[in-house]
Design a protein that fits this description.
Length: 254
């Protein structure tokens, strides 16, 4: 908000709308709701807020619970460039699998497990060094880490993780059964990107991953999100208009 020509009330209203609307808001919707004259202004405000949706000192996940780790491709289809060519981005994810406690009547829930904290990051490739670094940056050492049989995760056990891998043998249903939570998170992410934002560029994808993670991790307490983003914003550097459009801004978490 520093140096902004807009009223403080507009900033607060914008932060409230962005954090409390369940599906989020596109820049076009945001521009209309705030009555802004320029799309670029709405775009910049949203990215300033997204920069405040990730804590620089955030905790690693898996302190008490097993963690599922996998990768997925995100992006639109490419036509006319030949088979096997795409411009999709590779996204790595890690998600806690928590166990439900009994309800107030002492009965067990039908679904005894649910998704806990989520971490998402754009990664360059599926090489072992890249995937290992993602796990080390996001998952606490000694945690149970569940992955598929991809060789890029082969050295996790030697780094102190309790690695549980599954051999596919061409059967994709085994992977879905072994990694249900992260696959559901990936599916919801892609639906959200296409439904709310109608797709995003690779340049800014990490910012949208941060927003999705912010919403996902606060889905049980949505009204705390407004306070959270204001608190984080006071300790976070925000992008300028030029850095966003010229590509020099590196989104947190990238």
């Amino acid at each position: 908000m520093h140096g902004s020509r807009m009223a403080l009330s507009t900033w607060f209203w914008g932060a409230y709308l962005m954090t409390t609307q369940t599906p989020g808001m596109s820049a076009v919707q945001f521009q209309r709701q705030l009555g802004l004259s320029r799309y670029e202004t709405a775009f910049q405000i949203l990215h300033k807020l997204r920069a405040s949706m990730i804590r620089p000192d955030r905790d690693t996940v898996g302190t008490e619970w097993p963690v599922e780790v996998d990768e997925t491709l995100v992006g639109g289809r490419t036509r006319g460039e030949g088979r096997g060519i795409h411009h999709k981005a590779l996204v790595a994810g890690a998600i806690e699998v928590r166990q439900r406690s009994m309800d107030t009547a002492g009965r067990k829930h039908r679904n005894t497990h649910y998704a806990g904290r989520l971490r998402l990051s754009v990664v360059a490739d599926r090489e072992g060094a890249t995937l290992t670094r993602f796990v080390q940056e996001n998952v606490v050492v000694k945690a149970v880490v569940r992955t598929d049989g991809w060789g890029g995760y082969g050295n996790l056990a030697s780094l102190g993780y309790a690695h549980e891998a599954i051999t596919l043998n061409g059967d994709g249903t085994k992977t879905d059964a072994h990694l249900p939570a992260i696959h559901i998170a990936f599916s919801n992410l892609k639906t959200w990107l296409m439904g709310t934002h109608h797709g995003v560029s690779k340049q800014h994808l990490q910012a949208y991953l941060n927003e999705f993670t912010f919403r996902f991790n606060r889905r049980f307490y949505p009204m705390t999100a407004f306070n959270s983003i204001l608190g984080l914003a006071s300790h976070t550097e925000a992008p300028t208009y030029d850095s966003l459009y010229h590509g020099s801004w590196i989104h947190p978490g990238a």
